[in-house]
Amino acid sequence: MKFSTLSAVAALMLAAALSACGGKAQFAVQGTITGLGNPGLVLANGSDTLNVPAGALSFTMPRQIPYGTEYNITVQHDPDHQTCQVVAGASGSAGHTVSIAAQVLCQQKAYNVSGQFIGLFPNNDATATTAATPRIVVLTNGSTGGTVSVSSASALDAALGKGNFQFDTKVPHGIAYGVTILSQPADLNCSLTGGTGVINDADASNLLLTCKPK
Question: Measured in whole angstroms, how far is the alpha carbon of residue 205 from the centre of its chain?
Answer without folding.
Answer: 20
